[in-house]
User: Fold this.
Amino acid sequence: MNFLAFGVAGWICLVGFYGAIVSKNLIHLALCLTVIQSSTYVLLLSIGYRKHGTAPIFKGVKLGTTAVDPVVQSLTLTDIVISVTVIALILALALDAHKKSGTIDPDQLADFHG
Amino acid sequence: MPLATLVPLQASILVLVAFGATAVALCRNTLRQILLSGVYGLLLVLLFVVLQAPDVALSMLVVTTVAYPLIVLVAIARTRAGGVDADDDDS
Amino acid sequence: MTRRGIRAAVAVPTLGVLGVVLFWGLSGLPPFGNYHGIYGFLINHRALPQRHTTNAVTATVFDYRGFDTMGEEFILFAAVTGVVLLLRKGSEESDEAESEDQEPPEDDVRSDALRLFGMLALAAGALVALWLIAYGLVTPGGGFQGGVALASAFGLLYLTVGYRPWTRRTKEAALDPLEGVGASGYVVIGLAALISGLPFLTNLLGPGKPGTLWSGGSLSFINWAVAMEVAAANLILYKEFLEEYIVPLARRGG
Assistant:
């Protein structure tokens, strides 16, 4: 039962990879990449969880109460904001490919000699 | 076998997140996929709150409600209006 | 067999093998809820006495692991530069777009109630975003979350008020320097410590009073620099993408 958290993270990663591999559309591919990234967020936060822990904010909370790990939370929150711009870069590349060749199908783009 | 530290609330949201991810990855129509992705983002916000991470939940919330739909919808509109309808509608 | 069929046929066994290895690795982790990492334990106990910030996550992002955050900020900067290079129009195309600006495109919002709501929502959203940034050291929040929220509040302008107010209020000439100031501000604050003989990014101003706006010393300045950069970078992204949508609409006559 405890393995459910890590198991769900692993399942999300695998299903995201499958969606990205059999994709017919570059925009669909970008959204599958966001699914793969979200699996890492779920895994990181599940690793840092402590039994009966509260959030690592100590305003009004006595110092010394059990709190979950703040280091994995810091990694995750900067990653979420950065991934927006990286996915925007991928979408901009897809738009550029569409302008040059008229299609966003990865199979047809592979045959295109720009 | 140690007692489960996974509260039923966390377990149910984890199962919903797994279903949401499967739906987002296997949806073919990109317009439907961005709507599903918005719902999946809100499910992730719930999961992060329940895993005691309010900062992470805040950043996921602001990102998944405005930033992602805006850029993906513009990309969809641009690649449809460009002439070749590259959007696949099967399944 | 189509290319996609070959890919699907190869993907399923490969992902099966990957899944087996992944689940075998995940089963070796300590059970859920029994994380014994000492670093997080130490930060939870020392962030408030040392840095006077009640939010341990913000203290980690901007102080204890501030060097990593500088690297991530530059990933943001590089990605936005890439998008701008790809999508910003060349000089002859932008002249054509400006001559189209004479007639507004048909997607101007006509309902007054919607425009009023848009102005109020922008004001409320901007206030909440500024509160998130300013009190990020005390309660959940911080430069990253508040920066994206501020950019989203301005993005609401296009949706509810119209195309003309949006282009008037988001000039590239204003956003590009703001983003640069935010990115370089981080480095300048770190270099200020280096110049006075201490290691890079040391807290020069001393910790303040915990639980108030003035807590954490140079941590709060780094917080504002990151917020400025994230907000400006996101607004540049929205502007570039919306121009892709608006300009063909205007050229076709609305």
Remarks:
- DSSP finds ten helices and no strands in chain C.
- Chain C has a mean pLDDT of 83.
